[in-house]
């Protein structure tokens, strides 16, 4: 049983004495009150210590003040491609980024409350030279490398979920340079060629047509400018050097002629820019189907009218061994400089016929055969080319696309149509030649002879002239239906 403690007897109070003595022992009730005060909750924090000013909230606020896109204003940086500024593993500081974009719209610096234990840096995600942009992630990270903050203010060790993505634009970009190049060209799209016979229309037409058909075109602008006067300040501007350094090239497409009512010719062509992957870039920077966009149209004009220098085209001759149904012989190949398709040669021969230049052409071909024989066989005797034709040549080809050397047929002449469309002369039997119950070559006009019983050969240079005259008399060269698109007329 607990014993009850007796209180000491009260003392008498003096006139100036308090009711309790400061050195009396405390009661059980007073001790309990002291314990309760010690264990009671702490008072609420002051405003300075509230959650809105903690690191988490300050960081969240900091991220919210960073824009998603900034424009570069520093002229030195604007002249550089993104990959020239920053490499794949680069880390840049916010002040460094601000030196690129200027003070007007700068990225805010980390507040002092955070900068003691944290830092803000930019890590590059992607440098896009085509668009002229750099995509960065701005991170607020612990200086002790223990983590990075997300835009929510939460600390994490996962960088993928941390930081804020920012795009910097305004650097040198391929798209802008392409647009500028097309814009420069479009300021003048008509050019006068040299007004003399140095560059006749047909030569420019075929040179540029052949270039447009090449799979790997080179020096397109300089080749076009070659036909323009040296003192012409309006020559086509070359492709931007920065684009050239990045494997961009100019492509030539759709070369065509336009015949004016005064008889003069204009040459139409189209310029395109293609990238290193051989893809065409349009003015709006898309990569189109080439058939749906043919490029920037350019026109060459001021060509001389009624040109008469058709016979200035150099001619070459070469003897090519062939077999026809196992029979060995030679084919005499006649080629014309810069005329590399059957259509081009056909147009040329039709113009020769229209302008009554057949005899002059045959004389040039005969001389080319003599020169070709000397170069091919290194014999100087004048009689040898004639003997070579007489003993070995079965057919004459003016078709630059005829590369075949083994034939299943024993005749190369087009007996069925007798049109001359295959550009093959000779290649048939001697005497009167009949096809489809019709005599197509008479004995007097036949330049072939029988050889060793069951073969045929061209009768030297005399037979060569007969066979070529017969070829040029056929319907392919008499037809005038396409004269309006013949660059030689």
Structural notes for this entry:
This protein has 15 helices and 21 strands. It is α+β, with helices and mostly antiparallel strands and 489 residues long. It folds into three domains: 55-172, no CATH class; 175-301, no CATH class; 315-485, no CATH class. A five-stranded mixed β-sheet has the order 1-7-4-3-2. Strands 8, 9, 10, 11 and 12 form a five-stranded mixed β-sheet that branches. It has a five-stranded mixed β-sheet with strand order 16-13-14-15-17. α13 packs across α14 (460-472). It is elongated, with a radius of gyration of 46 Å. It starts with 27 loop residues before the first helix and ends in an 11-residue tail after the last helix. Residues 1-25 and 41-52 have low confidence and may be disordered. Residues 45-55 have a biased composition (Low complexity). Residues 1-55 are annotated as: Disordered. Residues 17-30 have a biased composition (Polar residues).
């Amino acid at each position: 049983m607990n014993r009850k403690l007796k209180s000491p007897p009260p003392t008498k109070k003096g006139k100036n004495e308090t009711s309790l003595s400061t050195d009396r022992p405390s009661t059980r009730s007073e001790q309990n009150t002291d314990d309760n005060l010690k264990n009671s909750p702490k008072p609420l924090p002051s405003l300075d210590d509230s959650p809105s000013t903690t690191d988490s909230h300050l960081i969240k606020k900091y991220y919210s003040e960073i824009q998603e896109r900034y424009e570069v204003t520093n002229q030195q940086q604007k002249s550089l491609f993104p990959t020239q500024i920053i490499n794949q593993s680069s880390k840049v500081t916010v002040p460094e980024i601000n030196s690129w974009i200027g003070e007007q719209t700068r990225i805010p610096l980390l507040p002092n409350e955070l900068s003691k234990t944290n830092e803000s840096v930019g890590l590059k995600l992607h440098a896009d030279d085509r668009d002229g942009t750099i995509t960065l992630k701005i991170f607020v990270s612990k200086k002790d490398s223990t983590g990075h903050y997300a835009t929510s203010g939460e600390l994490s060790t996962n960088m993928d979920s941390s930081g804020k993505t920012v795009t910097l634009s305004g650097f040198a970009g391929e798209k802008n340079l392409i647009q500028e190049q097309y814009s420069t060209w479009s300021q003048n799209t008509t050019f006068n060629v040299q007004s003399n016979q140095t560059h006749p229309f047909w030569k420019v037409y075929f040179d540029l047509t052949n270039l447009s058909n090449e799979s790997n075109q080179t020096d397109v602008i300089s080749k076009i400018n070659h036909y323009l006067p040296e003192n012409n300040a309006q020559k086509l501007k070359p492709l931007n050097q920065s684009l050239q350094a990045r494997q961009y090239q100019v492509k030539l497409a759709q070369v065509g002629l336009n015949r004016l009512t005064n008889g003069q010719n204009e040459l139409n062509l189209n310029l395109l820019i293609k990238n290193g992957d051989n893809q065409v870039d349009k003015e709006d920077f898309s990569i189109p189907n080439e058939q749906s966009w043919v490029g920037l149209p350019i026109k060459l004009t001021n060509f001389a009218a009624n040109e008469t220098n058709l016979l200035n085209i150099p001619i070459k001759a070469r003897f090519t061994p062939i077999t026809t149904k196992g029979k060995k012989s030679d084919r005499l190949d006649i080629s014309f400089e810069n005329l590399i398709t059957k259509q081009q040669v056909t147009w040329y021969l039709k113009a020769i016929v229209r302008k009554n230049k057949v005899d002059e052409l045959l004389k040039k071909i005969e001389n080319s055969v003599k020169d070709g024989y000397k170069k091919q066989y290194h014999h100087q005797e004048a009689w040898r080319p004639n003997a070579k034709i007489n003993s070995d040549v079965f057919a004459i080809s003016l078709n630059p696309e005829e590369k075949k050397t083994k034939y299943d047929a024993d005749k190369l002449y087009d007996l069925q149509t007798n049109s001359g469309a295959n550009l093959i002369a000779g290649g048939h039997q001697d005497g009167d030649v009949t096809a489809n119950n019709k005599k197509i070559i008479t004995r007097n006009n036949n330049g072939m002879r029988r050889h060793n019983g069951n073969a045929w050969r061209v009768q030297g240079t005399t037979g060569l002239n007969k066979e070529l005259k017969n070829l040029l008399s056929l319907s392919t060269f008499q037809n005038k239906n396409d004269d309006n698109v013949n660059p030689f007329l």
